[in-house]
Amino acid sequence: MTNSDPPLLNHYGALSSHSTRYDDPQSQLVVDECRLPLIDLSGLSSRDETVRRACVETICGASSEWGFFQVWNHGISLRLIEKMRSEQVKLFMTPFERKASCGHLNNSYRWGSPSATCPKQFSWSEAFHVPLTKVSDKACYGEFVSLREVMTEFAAAMSKLARVLAGALTENLGHGKEVMDNLCDESTCFLRLNHYLACPISPEIFGLVPHTDSDFLTILCQDQVGGLQLMKDSKWVTVKPNQDALIINIGDLFQAWSNGVYKSVEHKVVTNAKMERYSTACFLCPSYDSSIGCFKEPSIYRKFTFREYRDQVQEDVRKAGYKVGLSRFLVNGTDTVDP
């Protein structure tokens, strides 16, 4: 451990000493390595409508079958990605007490899982979670002047790509590309900088606990260490890193809006005993008062606002220790949470 590392071991140890041993049935499932569908996004800008439509259909097919896919020729330069990673590493190498108290990046620094009541709810990681509207704010950066320039450029590129992909997904369902532009709001869209510290205790500890994303879609830029796993055909599969590609995953809101056509898939990050891992994620979200309704009837889910969804997720995590998610909003679903 270095003086930049948060006291994860202390927090995890305290949870373990007050908890009975927990055996997660899913942790016993066979884990295979997979290669996600890899999509060349140059097709989206093709003047040949046949080529463009084929690219859209491939994106939508992967969103329905996997809920995850990779993209290349995405328009974000390797130079920018490398600069962002370098600045991110410098930020996380700051002494822990400084990170925890300086208020950088909209005072968004978080580590571990403050709401965790047992080891299965604990994430061995630290992160900054910044609204896109704050990314260019000079007051957020303090001494990290060079981070602001790079992060502003990176956030703009990721946000643009997210909207392009969202446009393709809505187009495939018979709606105009502008639907997501009207729904989404920079004040609720986020850029999240993640640092998964090496964890020598046990490979069973989560870097990030199993979850689905509470947005329309997420773009993930990760390093080559690996650790991302997703649920596919009732088993966990490990995503093989690809340095030339970004990872896209569908969030809960697109699953609800598409009436279950697109899948928001459970995923997690596993720890590495010797190597740390860095990633950056961009979350495409609507305004808090946007109504999320299915694009066709009969609807699987009742209508809800993004604010209502977030509030329900937070309440469930506070009361039960985990996210319940979309099952709360099924038209014919139940409204119970296991103790």
From TrEMBL:
It holds the Pfam family 2OG-FeII_Oxy. Residues 185-286 form the Fe2OG dioxygenase domain. The keyword Cell membrane does not apply. It comes from the Eukaryota. InterPro entries: DIOX_N, IPNS-like_FE2OG_OXY, IPNS-like_sf, Iron_ascorbate_oxido_reductase, Oxoglu/Fe-dep_dioxygenase_dom. The keyword Protein transport does not apply. Keywords: Iron, Metal-binding, Oxidoreductase. PROSITE patterns: FE2OG_OXY (PS51471). Belongs to the iron/ascorbate-dependent oxidoreductase family. This is Fe2OG dioxygenase domain-containing protein. It comes from Hibiscus sabdariffa.
